[in-house]
């Protein structure tokens, strides 16, 4: 293998400010990283990433960014495996890096609730090549190759931000606001009238506009999001079904069970037995 040429950086990058690791499968211990941002790229398989108490399935070619205040862990779905690249960058260094590029991007990333991006195959291949460059680099050249890898990741994030803005423009402000509300699991406990009032529009206007623009009623979208969140909690956490019932807007377990079965063909307990993560498989408590 040919040696990678030395790379000069436009600023100081101490070894204690940046680190790169390759991880395999689960790491179930909830933790955070004081003063460090983490850039996680799923290179193979899939894993459940639990961030600030909310589980999300990450598949191959998913990029996830964690801030120093975020708590997270990794859970491995049964009969699966995964591998991901992890780049840790100290906050002061990241700010200095952004100052050379787009300073406002740091503020945007700090303000976003969820920092998760599906990377197109061509771009994912470029990220993987950059990661392999780190792995094969001489010790004296590790930090510059990590900086290049960081630059590669941030290029993708910026491109996704631009694309997302373009996608959002196809919907009205009313529809966008409703979608954003239901992307936050904390709002799934509310009923449609409350959610409509939270958008600032009347229910009739929301129902008409949302249905026209998405070919789905607000009620259908709410049910879809409630089911998705309930399944994530059942599969990847030990949250009792009675608590999940209230989290997704039902006043009693019987109504929640009927809703769940109408969409999946199984009761929550039956679905839990078939889909529970390995380390939680014996737990499907209702109370």
Write a structural description.
This protein is an alpha+beta fold. It has two domains: 15-168, Regulatory protein AraC (Jelly Rolls), CATH 2.60.120.280; 173-280, Homeodomain-like (Arc Repressor Mutant, subunit A), CATH 1.10.10. Helices cover 48% and strands 19% of the residues. It has helices at 91-100, 103-111, 121-136, 142-168, 173-182, 192-199, 203-214, 218-236, 241-247, 253-264, 268-275; strands spanning 18-24, 27-31, 36-51, 54-59, 62-66, 72-75, 82-90, 116-118. Strands 1, 2, 3, 4, 5, 6, 7 and 8 form an eight-stranded antiparallel beta sheet that branches. Helix 1 packs across helix 2 and helix 3 runs antiparallel to helix 4 (142-168). The longest helix is centred in the middle third of the chain and has 27 residues, at 142-168. It is globular, with a radius of gyration of 21 Å. 25% of the residues are buried. Mean pLDDT is 84; it is low at 1-11 and 281-287.
């Amino acid at each position: 293998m040919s040696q990678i040429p030395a790379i000069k950086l436009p600023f100081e990058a101490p070894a204690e400010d940046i680190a790169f690791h390759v991880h395999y499968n689960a790491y179930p211990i909830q933790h955070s990283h004081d003063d460090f941002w983490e850039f996680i790229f799923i290179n193979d398989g899939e894993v459940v990433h639990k961030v600030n108490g909310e589980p999300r399935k990450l598949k191959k070619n998913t990029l996830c960014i964690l801030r120093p205040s975020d708590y997270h862990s990794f859970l491995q779905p049964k009969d699966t495996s995964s591998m991901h690249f992890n780049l840790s960058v100290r906050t002061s260094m990241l700010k200095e890096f952004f100052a050379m590029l787009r300073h406002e991007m740091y503020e945007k990333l700090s303000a976003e609730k969820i920092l998760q991006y599906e990377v197109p195959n061509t771009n994912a291949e470029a990220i993987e090549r950059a990661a392999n460059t780190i792995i094969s680099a001489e010790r004296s050249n590790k930090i510059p190759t990590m900086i290049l890898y960081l630059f590669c990741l941030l290029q993708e994030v910026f491109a996704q931000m631009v694309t997302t803005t373009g996608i959002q423009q196809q919907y009205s402000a009313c529809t966008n606001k409703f979608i954003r509300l239901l992307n936050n699991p904390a709002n799934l406990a509310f009923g449609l009238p409350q959610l409509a009032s939270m958008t600032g529009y009347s229910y009739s206007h929301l129902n008409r506009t949302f249905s026209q623009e998405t070919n789905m009623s607000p009620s259908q979208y709410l049910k879809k999001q409630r089911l998705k969140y309930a399944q994530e909690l059942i599969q990847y956490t030990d949250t009792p079904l009675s608590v999940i019932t209230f989290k997704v807007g039902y006043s009693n377990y019987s109504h929640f069970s009927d809703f769940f079965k109408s969409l999946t063909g199984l009761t929550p307990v039956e679905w839990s037995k078939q889909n529970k993560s390995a380390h939680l498989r014996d737990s499907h408590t209702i109370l």
